[in-house]
Amino acid sequence: MTRPWLLVALVGLAYAQAPQFAVEGRVTYAASYPLGRWEGTNSTASGQVRWEVESGVLEGRICVDLRAFDSGNPLRDADSRGVFEVNKYPQSCFQPTRLLRQGEGVSVVGILDLHGVRREIRIVGSLSQEGAAYRFRGAFETKFSEWNLERPSLLFLRVDDPVQVRLEARVEPR
User: Fold this and answer.
1) Ranges for the Lipid/polyisoprenoid-binding YceI-like domain (predicted)?
2) Are 143 and 117 in contact (CB under 8 A)?
């Protein structure tokens, strides 16, 4: 007679022992409109993940304070806080589910929660080992409409869609 509860307990115990990592990093968006291009950077990305290095299974949460983007222009940064509606949605969180190795590169797949919308995204990039830690660099493109965000405008010029998002994170064992 099999005991399904025993199998569930053993799988849960094995996963609970997956290595845990602290994540700290930076998010940069690159946006443009017909008269120019700019970037905004946010260094508040932080969280924790469990990562089974061999299988690529990930679980955890990494969040960014949406009030902290800095483009070097205080008026533009105030506009971005308005677009994100930071009083209602002060942060954006990513829940990674797996890391896929693709030759020299990797993709991190997971659910991004932004402006009350949850969508699966794929961040394509690279992963390098630094001692016991790892460095991830990756990027993805997205559109304002995917997150129910109003595209910002200046006079009669709207910000272009899509927007490029780059990420860099240091992932250290806990």
Assistant:
1) 20-170
2) no
Query: What would the pLDDT profile of 138-160 be if each residue is shown by its tens digit?
Result: 999 999 999 999 998 877 889 99
**48 lies in a domain?**
yes
Q: Domain count of the chain?
A: 1
The answer to whether residue 93 is domain-embedded is: yes
What is d(CA 111, CA 102) in angstroms, rounded to the nearest whole number? 20
Radius of gyration of the chain (CA): 19
Question: Is residue 5 included in any domain, yes or no?
Answer: no
pLDDT digits (tens, 9 = 90+) for 42-87: 999 999 999 998 899 999 999 999 999 999 999 999 999 999 999 9
Is residue 15 included in any domain, yes or no? no
Predicted model pTM: 0.87
pLDDT of residue 153: 82
